[in-house]
Design goal:
CellSynth/LPSAsmb/PSIAsmb; TPR-like_helical_dom_sf; Tetratricopeptide repeat protein; repeat; single chain
Amino acid sequence: MYKDSHVTHEQNVIPFLNEGDFYFVHGVKALRKKDFLKAKKWLKRAVELSPTNPLYKCQLSVIYTETGSYQKANDILQEVLEGFPQEFPDCYYLMANNYSHLGLFDQAQKYAEMYLEKDPEGDYNEEAGQLLDMLKMYHEPENEDWLFDHEDELLHYQEMVFQHMEYEEWNEALPVLEEMMALFPEHPSARHDYAYALFFSGEQEEAIELEKQWVEHDGESINSTVNLAIFYHVSGERELSTHHIKKLWNVHPIHESQKLKMAVAFARTGYFDEALIRFQELWRTQEKNRVSYYKWYSLSAFHSGYEEKAHMIWKEGCKKYPELSKSKQPWEEH
């Protein structure tokens, strides 16, 4: 696909890569090494130099997906589809996958179906079918109109909340979540994220009471059970924590974000062997591209007797997220 950069003396011609290709090749090399910071830097430069090249943009979108910036990835893919609606059908599947991670299941279904319609024999045919099967379990038709009407604004809030929660910026997350709950009361995960941030900002009793009220009103969910198991454990009420964590023992959710929440819950409550199993089930998913994945996975490995593995996981996390290297290793704190 790319020309060699060596000099062909016999023909007295010097082949070379154009500027965009030069940065693109370096970006792809960095991506293969899982060095996402460098990959993003190189690929953004390639796009700047060749803004109409759809291949560069598609590859840059992969970087954003890998690092959990799903809406940013979709913005780029949408640009590709606007310029090349027929040539890059894979973009529809990639967008469907990103929407599923954002919790926008109706949009995920829409784009997965569009992909299968436009490229029924495509490379992602099997994955798109599996995604649609999973989405059937989360489809809530009563929320459909609301979701489409407010999608852009909701995504904006989700991106802000995601960043604050991942870096445990609880006081910064709380006002964003308060606005989000006021604007989107139909969006269920916001209130559980709010309780989580509230608890770790120091308002433990209020957070527990909120979760108990929601359980009483709406029944138990994975989110509420996870939160209460963690809250009671941190509060020193181990019996109550065990009561809730046992409810999760034989639960294996389909959605990857819930799998990660449960893995973290087992780690936070001291069930490191079970947490290790749950984290190992995530190793091929996008959820591994979260700060919390590396922190709690490495801690679980360490306390399960796999110290070398723990150091390897933590090192990988620090490479992907350099700011982690400024923190203590998780087993030094917990």
